[in-house]
């Protein structure tokens, strides 16, 4: 999946992945995709809920070697 921007939130605990995601999304245009990498297991439910409440679309999420990867399309 092609992302306009990549955010590395690995090693950060809640709520920092959400805080950094929110800031990164402000720099994108509507329709752009942000790729986020996080290691906090709570990020999965947090980012899913945040994307939905913010009018964004969670396109895909995967886990690879303990790293959660998310692709969120800006609404």
UniProtKB/TrEMBL annotation:
SUPFAM superfamilies in the cross-refs: SirA-like
Pfam families in UniProt: TusA
Domain called UPF0033: residue spans: 7-31
Residues annotated as signal peptide: none
Protein family according to the UniProt entry: Belongs to the sulfur carrier protein TusA family.
Name of protein: Sulfurtransferase TusA family protein
Lineage start: Bacteria, Bacillati, Bacillota, Bacilli, Bacillales
